[in-house]
Specification:
- The chain is built from six helices and ten strands.
- By secondary structure, it is of the alpha/beta class.
- The protein has a single domain, classed as 3-Layer(aba) Sandwich (Rossmann fold), CATH 3.40.50.
- The strands form two sheets. Strands 3-2-1-4-5-10-9 form a seven-stranded mixed β-sheet, with helices on both faces. It has a three-stranded antiparallel β-sheet with strand order 6-7-8.
């Protein structure tokens, strides 16, 4: 699976992506995660990565001091910018995470990414954490949320590669199928991976979602 495959897949899904938040059995867990995100990002200067359609941006922007939301997919940004936000709080930018400039002093106090970490290959995660310390700034609070694998609800795992990455077959809008990287890390795997690069790791899980907060070193 190439980076272009992932980008093209989400470009196709832009108009229907938020359907994943409409599953009735997930509503209680989703509201719980929303409340936790709002609480931790309250009064924060947030850099949001992979903001997608702005679903999460819209839900925490009122609590934040400011939000700089980025995504590398223009289709997603068009939808995100059409949502409602408090006046003057939110800016959007078409940007590749790996090309973002280093943060200036006190530019951000928090970095948020929703449903992004699961699409990062295990072998690339350590390098990504080091990069986040540069683009968000050392001492910044990192907040990640993502999916748990739930038998009978999640898309089945189609294969696992030699590095332990798992992949799903997803249906595109044109009816074709594409293989998408989707990892489901355990708490111990998250702590082992994040431990050398961050401090104050806290992990919360309900049935369908997990949330990790920490401070970048």
């Amino acid at each position: 699976m190439s980076e272009n495959t992932m980008r093209d897949y989400y470009a196709q899904r832009a108009q229907t992506l938020e359907k994943m938040y409409q599953k009735p059995e997930r509503q209680q867990d989703l509201r719980e995660i929303e409340t936790r995100v709002q609480d931790v990002l309250q009064n924060q200067r947030v850099l949001e990565l992979a903001c997608g359609t702005g679903y999460w941006t819209e839900r925490y922007a009122a609590q934040a001091t400011s939000v700089a939301a980025t995504d590398y997919n223009q289709n997603m940004l068009d939808l995100a910018q059409a949502k409602s936000y408090p006046d003057g709080k939110v800016t959007f930018a078409l940007a590749d995470l790996y090309e973002l400039p280093a943060a200036t002093a006190d530019q951000y106090s928090a970095c948020f990414a929703g449903f992004f970490w699961s699409h990062v290959k295990r072998e690339a995660q350590t390098g990504l954490l080091a990069h986040l310390s540069k683009v968000a700034g050392k001492g910044t609070t990192l907040v990640l949320i993502d999916n748990n694998y739930v038998e009978g609800s999640s898309t089945v795992i189609a294969r696992t590669d030699l590095e332990g990455n798992t992949f799903q077959l997803r249906k595109q809008e044109d009816g074709s199928r594409v293989e998408i990287l989707k990892n489901f890390p355990t708490d111990s795997a998250l702590r082992k991976k994040f431990g050398p690069a961050v401090r104050d790791i806290r992990i919360f899980r309900n049935t369908y979602y997990w949330m990790l907060t920490c401070v970048l070193k």
